[in-house]
Amino acid sequence: MSDSGKVVVKSVEAQWIVAAFGVIPNYADSAPILDSRFHSVAEYAVANNVEFAGVPICLYHDNVIREVNIPIETIVPIAHEIEGNEQVWVYKLPEVKTMASIVHKGPFTTIPEAYATINEWIEKNQYEINGSLREVYIVNDNGGENAVTEIQYPVEKIKEKKCLFPKFCSFFKK
């Protein structure tokens, strides 16, 4: 069960990462692809004698909710820059000053509850998503009962549009 209602806004520092791009066919069948991608980036980091500097992260690059052919990037944070190659990229994941975050504790099958909570919070608090979603796998447990996953959305406050003709605009607000 997720820590319902415990959405926080925080900043996330920039960090060096080893990453591999992929496309998952759908969420139900994503585990083998994610495992393979995470294994390849972790193996690359180990082969290049660089220390891990955090837990695995999956970046979902498409902010449109889709059920098939979902573009993802599997990431392992590392201590410093190393050379990448054609299959494995190394770059600095940028800092995010305003990240909406919720921690889900429990199996991946119940993670939609956490997504519903954070998405409702974003809308209710007048934020909009302005970047790629991150799932941070604090405790993986292969998606089992002991899994702990942090869901992070880069957000910004929705700016109120200014009216050039206040009397005209106030007429339509009634």
Polypeptide structure, described:
The protein is α+β, with helices and mostly antiparallel strands and 174 residues long. The protein has one domain: Regulatory factor, effector binding domain (Multidrug-efflux Transporter 1 Regulator Bmrr, Chain A). 22% of the residues lie in helices and 36% in strands. The longest helix is centred in the first third of the chain and has 17 residues, at 31-47. The mean pLDDT is 89.
Number of domains: 1
CATH architectural group: Alpha-Beta Barrel
* Strand residues, percent: 35-45%
**Computed CA radius of gyration, to the nearest angstrom:** 19 Å
CATH topology, anyone? Answer: Multidrug-efflux Transporter 1 Regulator Bmrr, Chain A
CATH class: Alpha Beta
Shape: globular
Give me the secondary-structure category.
alpha+beta
Helical percentage: 10-25%
Query: Alpha-carbon distance between the termini?
Result: 42 Å
CATH homologous superfamily grouping: Regulatory factor, effector binding domain
Low-confidence stretches: none
Number of strands: 9
Return the average pLDDT rounded to an integer: 89
What is the string of SSEs from the N terminus onward?
A: EEHEEEEHEEEH
Give the tags.
174 residues; alpha+beta; Multidrug-efflux Transporter 1 Regulator Bmrr, Chain A; nine-stranded antiparallel β-sheet; 3 helices; 9 strands; globular
